[in-house]
User: Fold these one by one.
Assistant:
Number 1:
Amino acid sequence: MFRRRWQAGGFDGANAEPGMTSSSLSSDHTTRRYGLLSLPAYPLLAIAGAVTQRQVFALLALALLLTVPMLSQLLARRAAAWLLWSGLLAGLLWTWRHGLAGLLLEAVPVLINALLAGWFGRTLGTAEPLVERFIVAIEGAERLRQPGVTAYARQVTWFWTVLLAAQALLLAVLLLCADHDGLLARAGVASPLAVPDRWAAAWLHVGGYLLLGAAFLLEYAYRRWRLRHLHHPGLHDTLLRLVLHWPQLLRGKRVAAP
């Protein structure tokens, strides 16, 4: 029964990377899951750094953000991954010693939103917009053949592209224009738009992430209403399958329908 349930939920070997055994695949899935579960510590460390103005919290937040995407490669003891991780960590230590870790941490939300907007936007010019990849990873390629799904996937890809680009622009303005901690103020340049430091810091480290989380939940609820003629997996299963199959989203290769 467990095996049937595992395969019915989209966790069978069809989505596995080449050369991976079932045991190594299970271990990799577990590593991804627990790695992503540690990410909530990132905003806590970022907030601690912003409130206390202590660079060590910024360093820890950046180290966590750097380590989580590479965790499975590091635990697999791959030399290239360890060399890359060590080099990047050495760079973080250099920024910390020169008092730049806090500034780098403040720039991270801008970079994340800009990169995600570019990722979503690039796929709009292809036959496989990014949300289609999400659908395949979560529900299988057969889902795209059902009425209304393909058109909705492209529309939602547009939605995320615009939202993330607007968010990146807003965060960049906050980073530049904060009253005393903004880049313009630090450079001795008068800001054309004075933004209180506490509001800029709150949105950079908390508000921006809450907005994306709220947008995800609202889109999930709207999708269930818009495509109410179809069965939908629960929110927990949706998130879990995204965690387990994120390499498929990067490759953009559709899984053959069962």
Number 2:
Amino acid sequence: MIKKILFNYYGLKELLDFLINTSKEVYNTIKPIIGSSLASEVIGKGAGGDWTMRIDRLAEDVIINSIKKQNLSCIVVSEESGIINIGSKRDFYIIIDSIDGTTNAVRGIPFFCTSIAISKSNLIKDVCTGVVLNLWDGTIFYAEKGNGAYMNDKKIKTSNRVLLEDAIIGIDFSKAEESIVNRLKPLFKKIKHIRHFGANALEICYVASGLIDAFIDIRRVLRVTDIAASYIILKEAGGLMLTPEKKEINSILEPTQRVSFIAASNPVIYDEILKNIKK
């Protein structure tokens, strides 16, 4: 387990461990209602614009309460509740997607996660710590800037595969406009192994661990809260997350901020993907 002292003036010597323990608490709390009618009860609309289900709120409450119990002073950016100021100093950010893949969770499909990240500013480029936990089986991915990425305490790295014909590529084109589908058509013809499991943060962690070779979402509908934690995990595993214009993602950490990106295991396969996406 990585043990680094961060923000020690808050009295919390192992902030990464705190995030890991909090995500495990979410896992234990929501597990009894996975796939139940209680989980899918709609209780409002989140700050990100989607309907909030009871399982989302239950998971978020666990995280917020855990932050408050540790007397942290921070700005919370949550997909459900929006911007929450906790404490008086508030000089760092905690970014929450309490459940990514809610549809899978309420149906009992075993691929959904909780995602928690820490940033030194309100920009994704300053995310320094991230945890993504698979809420079905407890598999946990985590990273801290400069210390590598891990899956269940084992260091991970991205794949070195460079041929699209042999690669496994995740693509989210759910509700994509026709123009987006047309841009992706050459890829559909080129790639033999296309996947989409329904929880984008977890799929990016699969790229980080070498299980798949890239993940693409160019719809510009995915929220920055969905990818904040997996962003640092992927980068620490040796991968890259860039826009289709080869630019670094530098989004503001707000619940309504949308992103468009290609998460790739290495620069060669990123370039191969770009060659097969229409301008």
